[in-house]
Amino acid sequence: MIKTDIIIIGAGPVGLFTIFEAGLLKLRCHLIDSLPAPGGQCSEIYPKKPIYDIPGFPSILAGELIDNLVEQAKPFNPGFTLGEAAVKIDKNDEGNFIVTTTKGTEHEAPIIMIAGGLGVFEPRKPPIEGLENYEDRGVEYIIKDPEMYRNKRCVIAGGGDSALDWAIYLADKNIASEVSLVHRRTSFRGHLDSVQKVMDLADEGKINLITEAEVVGVGGNGKIENITVKHKTQGEIVKDTDHFIPLFGLKPSLGPIGDWGLEIEKNAIVVDTLDYSTNIPGIYAIGDVNTYTNKLKLILCGFHEGTLAVQSAFARIHPDKKNVLKYTTVNGISGF
Ligand SMILES: Cc1cc2nc3c(=O)[nH]c(=O)nc-3n(C[C@H](O)[C@H](O)[C@H](O)COP(=O)(O)OP(=O)(O)OC[C@H]3O[C@@H](n4cnc5c(N)ncnc54)[C@H](O)[C@@H]3O)c2cc1C
Questions:
Q1: Do the Cβ atoms of 283 and 262 come closer than 8 Å?
Q2: What is the whole-number distance in angstroms between the Cα of residue 297 and the centre of ligand 1?
Q3: Does residue 269 contact residue 291 with C-beta atoms inside 8 Å?
Q4: Helix, strand, coil: what percent of the chain each, to 5?
Q5: What is the rounded CA–CA span in Å between residue 261 and residue 281?
Q6: Residue 218's closest CA among 234, 206, 230?
């Protein structure tokens, strides 16, 4: 059981900044995210795009903003449960919340902040019959640990940055024994640099590039052993492999958040703008996941919401203590 003051569900920019604001009030945070790394939409959808409306930064890459937020939170020593979605919220006899994840990890705290953004990112799965039978048996939609592929034959499918970057990584670092990249077209959607690198590695024989083709079948006894590729001109080819990794991007869905008894309106959690509390006392919702009159789904609005929510959380945790606003310029930062 992981115990903390505030469980933050969602490690996007808003969840990350909330660690800092909670830390100033001496409240500890533990974050849960279904993705393998912090950053939410900024890391997952547009890490290389510049953002122009973060106060004090005329322009900052979304990925850099996340790096900075992680750095800013460090003095407050946050805990992370990554690669696991929060699926269940219960209350124990002491009145604390227990949040359980997909892998059964349990977290206990008097306060929950839901910073779940657009929800859990779910992989876009190709429509291949029987594919689900091989999930975690050689079929993976997200690469969590590249070491898993050491000396293995891997087939990656997709034409975006994720497919290109992982094909490059597994081939260039000599991790996988064989890397094939299957894509429907001859052109790719990823960064030009990455496309060029894939072409170079294909010329060197390190990536087996199969374009104008798609994976249409999977086979194997208990685990994946082969895939069937349908090529535009060459017809169907059966190829032996240890892993099939379709990387067609992620789509957000509110997921389990919708089942926790919270008031939901248009796929978002209704909050009181006084402190961004929900209809369940002790549970707050901040960032893109909430809704109220005039809501704007912007990072800076989420930062403000998290800041006010932790003030309210402090009052719930310490009803006997008065919290006086202290400037960081005056008091500095004293971490844990
Ligand atoms: C292309 C694009 C460009 C944008 N440009 C700008 C811009 O210029 N300026 C701006 O201010 N905003 C911009 N935005 C919007 C901005 O990215 C969002 O407002 C911001 O990401 C919201 O942050 P968040 O932390 O609330 O949620 P998110 O970034 O969505 O993060 C939520 C996290 O919660 C996790 N999660 C959800 N449910 C669960 C669960 N049950 N268990 C575990 N984890 C869960 C998700 O995996 C995710 O990592 C842009 C968005 C896009 C898509």
A1: yes
A2: 9
A3: yes
A4: 30, 30, 40
A5: 12
A6: 230
What's the pLDDT score for residue 102?
93
| Residues 84, 99 within the same domain | yes
Domain boundary pick from 246, 267, 287: 246
Ligand 1 mean position, distance from CA 12 (Å): 6
Query: How many structural domains does the chain have?
Result: 2
Shared domain check, 255 and 118: yes
% of the chain exceeding 90 in pLDDT: 87
Residue 157 pLDDT greater than 90, yes or no: yes
pTM of the model: 0.77
**pLDDT single digits (tens) 311-326:** 999 999 999 999 888 8
For residues 255 and 113, state if they share a domain: yes
**Neighbour tally for 52: CB within 10 Å:** 9
Our answer on whether the CB atom of 35 is closer than 6 Å to any ligand 1 atom is yes
**Residue 222 half-sphere exposure, CB side, CA atoms within 13 Å?**
0
**Pocket lining: 60 vs ligand 1, CB cutoff 6 Å:** no
